[in-house]
Amino acid sequence: MFAALFSVFATAADWVSPSVDYHALAPEIILAGGIVLVLLLDLFTSENNKWMLGPVTSFTLLGAFIPVLTLALNDAGTRSLFEGRYVVDNFSLTMKGLFVLAGYLVVLLSSDYLREGDFYEGEYWVLMLSSLLGMVMMASSRDLVSIFVSLEFLSIPAYMMAAWRKRDLKSNEAGVKYFLLGVFASALMLYGMSLLYGISNSTLLTDIGTYVSGDMSAIRAVAVLFVVVGFAFKISAVPFHTWAPDTYEGAPTPVTAFLSVASKAAGFVALLTVVYVGFPNASEVWQPVFWILAALTMTVGNVMALRQTNIVRMLAYSSISQGGFILMPLAIAGEGDSAGAALRAVVTYLLVYAATNLGVFAVVIAVARKTRSGAISSYGGLFSYAPGLATVMTIFMASLTGIPPLGGWIGKFGSFQALVSAGTTWGYALAVIGAVNTVIAFGYYGNMMREMWMRPVPDGDTSPVVVPSALIVALGITTFATLLLGILPGLVLHFGDLANLAGAFGG
Amino acid sequence: MEVLSDNNWALSVGTFLPLVGVLVMLFIPKAQETATKAVALLTSVATLGVGVYTLTQFNFDQAGKMQFVAQTNWISVLKSTYFVGIDGISLPLYLLSMVITVLVTIYSWNHVPEPGNTKAFFALMLILQTGMAGTFIARDLILFFVFFELVLLPMYFMIGVWGGEHRQYASLKFFLYTMFGSALMLVAFLALFFKTGAESFSIPFLIEHGAGISRSAQIWIFGGMFVGFAIKVPMFPFHTWLPDAHTEAPTQGSVILAAVLLKLGTYGFVRIAIPILPVAAKEWAPWIGLLAVVGIIYGALGCLAQTDMKRLIAFSSVAHMGFVMLGISTLTSFGVNAAVFGMVAHGLITGMLFFVAGSVKERYHTLEIARLSGMLKQMPRMGWIMGFCVMASLGLPGLAGFWGEFPAILSAYQPAAGLSEVTFRIFMVIAAIGTVLAAGYLLWLFQRTAFGEPAAEFGGDSHDDHGGGIHDVNVFEWMAWTPLLVAILVLGVYPNLLFKIIDPAVQGVLSAFGG
Fold it and tell me: Distance (Å) from the C-alpha of residue A75 to the closest C-alpha of chain B?
């Protein structure tokens, strides 16, 4: 044993520091700097000056977006660090941009909410930035270890944020439930990862890709399955979704927005990376799994959403069902040259979904400031006293349904296109299931519209809703993005034109 | 930019101008209703102006060709382009949508339905106009789909907010039906795209390559489109949303729905499904014909059973659209000509009937046929206008309705080569019986509501303008209705006005069937 330990030190002596591409790591470095800054500011500011922490957080996020942009505009192409364990390519940059901007929007949603409630502020911002740093790292990770570290990095702060309403039982329940199931999922995933390491003697995904191929022995299939199921928890795919409604309902609303958009997107990023880089040759194992998960997730999510009376619970199930739609293309991603189309569909859907869903939560937060209620019926007659909010909410609901020319449409369209492009019976069958689910989904999205436009105001209180300026900015950005992505989808499709990237991924 | 060269701008401006009006409206305070109405009217008139300009610049000798064509990049990743153009089939429908919007706006000047909110009402109407006009000029399937869906939400709100007692049920039913159809239609479009080599969504390209798809695939793809379009038409057995939607919709909604929205479905058959998938069209034709005649008879019988005037007119739409679909199902130029004429005629006549129904409801606060009578005595002008429309609707020669119905029946005598003559001749006989039933229910409706003595509950026999609050046609109604009444008469007396534009375009559409 000592000999083994000694040999570790011996190799450590030869260790040379790897050359670090600081430009490529700039977003992470800025976020890490921001975490330290906010933490220190929180320590040394009086209660009266705590307000400055929110703006500092948002400037950190906008600052982190700058290198994402410069990297994207740089023609240097894919940057591979640490022997291919950390890769900055178009895919990871797109997702980093999404995380950082979604984080910025969540700051806008949170600031007034935190100030008006009885919350710790400084710690909230630090945890949120940490979680975002984990997501940004996740987008670049191409190694089992860094994927796992990123995953825990993004999850653990989120567990705490879910329980941020300290004296509220439901919020505590939310945090504990999220934590327990999250840890359970991590354990499953780790088990799968350990098998993968055993098979390939490497933690690098590209190495694993060469071993997990050809004749699928049971052990390989089990390894792939466990990893996929672990991530299925993170993206709350049915039947691993049970934590989501309770957590979403109990958590403070801005945190719910954060979980349902950024956290979910991070889960998808990890799933995509693992599947495209790690298991490109194991499609006979994961294709049927994704087919079943997608079909179940959208159907069960939809049917459960239909019967909800609480808006956040409804949105939780809606988010589950949207996750099913995002999963759809992966069910055929191994067919011929459909991999590129599937990847593009998922990324596009994630971008559109982020814009729309954050907008929905902005409206929910704004309306709850007046009604102090989470009941769907409290939206009755919203159009008569808050026409602006009702109109943007209508736009978001229509976008989530997938009605052109709004953003959600282009997401759904991409998914259907990818499915049909495979030309297999299974692909067509899933497309038809998706089509039917689109109609079912209108049951609850349409119900929201009906409440706002066609039902009377429940208590006759038609005093206007006061919307703070931060929420107005958030609503403006999300509405604009939802419309723009729908009318000129070329913008995002071009940005996420990842067909060539699937090649880079695989190699 | 190519879009703005020559006269190419005309179609794009004509389609998107209403949205500019909506933007302007957003900045008008809610309280200033007159300003809102003025902007809406101005926008719709300006849009019609662009439409009329298009008409004057349209080369009628080349009506079979696409004109004002504009094509520019839109979503290049998806191989979809912004591609618009207009020919003899599109032009009448494109203009019809504009005319109807102007007339409905005029009618709404003092008829904004409960619960008010003028701003939202007119904004939705203008968005609807963009969707309708866009559908008729789109030359790219994705663009077509976007416009086709754009009309959904405004109409949903129009029925659901400003409609009658059961408006929420009716609007939801309308939406779910249509949405279900469009979802399957989209899958069919995608299948078509990939089966033709995943190169383009442009309709001319697909017409060129669609015939090469294997027979069984064509039949499936046609099936997907069929569901989408047939629900919109609506054909039996997908029609059940229509009576509810029409009955509950406000007058303006009913008029737009009947006059233009239903045509989106039939237009889709003529423009997309049939020319792109000729083999499947032949396989499906007898079934379409069968459903069409079932619709004719079913609609007529449904009419006979109605006690509500608006619901009766709605069922008559099912029957009339049956004639249109029968014409299309023959796959002959004679039949499709009749169908396109029938679309325009039905738009004018049924739109007009819904206007009358709306005004009757406004005056009597009921549309129950049993409670109405003696309209001719109480308000003779309204009564005669209704009589005129009823005659036009039942297909009286000399009025527009005749030229949609009669040739459609006639065309079934000699369907396109390869279709069973016996089957279609049976359809012809059934459809002919349908016209008799149509005369029956329409004249019966007229007789019960217009003849006899005015009912005592509505002020008895006093027929001066102040009697019982029942007054005859007012100035806004005259302004909104006169153009429709004139058009019904003119097209009835001189149908060639329309046929000569339609015919060359129809020949082009049916070139795969040898004329």
Answer: 21
**Residue B91, both tokens:** 């032009």
Spatial neighbors of B321 by CB under 8 A, at least 6 apart, are: B233, B234, B235, B262, B266, B295, B346
Helix, coil or strand: residue A56: helix
User: Rounded distance, CA B487 to CA B501, Å?
Assistant: 16
Please, which residues have CB within 8 angstroms of residue A468's CB and are 6 or more apart in sequence?
A112
Residues B77 and A343: their CA atoms lie apart, in Å, by 14
Q: What share of chain A is helix, strand, coil (3-state, %, to 5)?
A: 80, 0, 20
Give the Cβ contact number of residue A335 at 10 Å: 20
Mean pLDDT to the nearest integer, B284-290:
93
Among B23, B27, B75, the strongest candidate for a mutation testing the A interface, having the largest count of A CBs within 10 A, is B75
Least Cα distance to B265 among B240, B228, B293 occurs for B228
Structural tokens at position A321:
């069902």
Please write the tens of the pLDDT for every residue from B216-229: 889 999 999 999 99
For residue A260, give the DSSP letter: I
Q: Which of A167, A157, A172 is nearest to A247 (CA)?
A: A172
Contact A383 B120 (CB under 8 A): yes
Count how many domains chain B has: 1
Task: Tell me if A494 and B77 make a contact (CB, 8 A cut-off).
Answer: yes
Cα pseudo-dihedral A255, A261, A267, A269, rounded to 10: -140
Q: How far from B183 is each of A329, A390, A405, A447, B368, CA to CA, in Å?
A: 17, 26, 14, 19, 37
Cross-chain Cβ contact A446/B175 below 8 Å: yes
Q: Is A435 exposed, middle or buried (0-12, 13-18, 19+ CB in 10 A)?
A: buried
Using the beta-carbon criterion (under 8 Å), do A417 and B172 form an inter-chain contact?
no
C-beta atoms surrounding B443 within 10 Å:
14
pLDDT-based confidence at A11, cuts 50/70/90? low
Q: Could you tell me which residues come within 8 angstroms of residue A470 by beta carbon, excluding any fewer than 6 positions away?
A: A108, A109, A111, A112
- Say which residue the tokens 């499953």 belong to: A188
CB A222 within 8 A of CB A153: no
- B301: Cα within 13 Å, side-chain hemisphere: 8
Chain B interface includes A424 (CB < 8 A): no
The one-letter amino acid code at B445 reads L
B3 lies within 8 A of chain A by CB: no
3-state secondary structure of A204: strand
Q: Which of A12-21, B235-244, B304-313, B442-451 is predicted least confidently?
A: A12-21
Question: Residue A215 has what DSSP assignment?
Answer: S
Look at residues A128, A125, A276, A285 and name the one whose alpha carbon lies nearest to residue A219: A285
Residue A280 exposure: Cα atoms within 13 Å on the Cβ side: 21
Run of H or E residues at B433: helix B421-450
Q: Nearest residue of A to residue B27 by CA position?
A: A388
Q: What token pair was written down for A422? A: 């495979």
Going by C-beta distance under 8 Å and a sequence separation of 6 or more, which residues neighbour residue B145?
A404, B182, B185, B186, B189
- Three-state DSSP state, B414: coil
pLDDT, one tens digit per residue, over A107-146 is 999 988 888 887 888 899 999 999 999 999 999 999 999 9
Contacts of A428 in chain B (CB under 8 A): 187, 191
pLDDT tens per residue, range A414-446: 888 888 888 888 888 998 899 889 889 988 998
Output the CA–CA distances (angstroms, integers) from residue B442 to A377, B24, B431, B436, B438, in the order listed: 44, 43, 16, 10, 6
ipTM of the complex: 0.83
Q: Hey, are the CB atoms on B194 and A439 less than 8 Å from each other?
A: no
Residues of the domain holding B237: 2-513
Residues 71-100 of B with CB under 8 A from A: 73-78
Residue B40 contacts residue B21 (beta carbons within 8 Å):
yes
Higher pLDDT, B329 or A496: B329
- Of B290, B315, B236, the C-alpha closest to B431 is B290
